[in-house]
């Protein structure tokens, strides 16, 4: 999630801010980056599960 926010969210926010002339919109890209990070992470997690590379760990 944090990688998605940093790698995707901030550049998207900068693009919004610069295109509209209001750099205060920089933070608007963070939720978009969060969503992208969650989607990519879920996909990679499902891929690891199918390949049997997940640890069988149960934390209570």
Helix content: 55-70%
H/E order of the elements? HH
Biggest sheet, open or closed, and with what strands and sense?
A: none
Low-pLDDT stretches? none
Structure description:
With 60 residues, this protein is mainly α. It contains 2 helices and no strands. It has a domain of 39 residues. α1 packs antiparallel against α2. The model has no long low-confidence stretch (mean pLDDT 90).
Summed up:
This protein has 60 residues and is an all-alpha fold.
Overview features:
mainly alpha, 60 residues, 2 helices
What is the topology?
Layout: H1 2-20, H2 29-50
Helix pairs in contact: 1-2
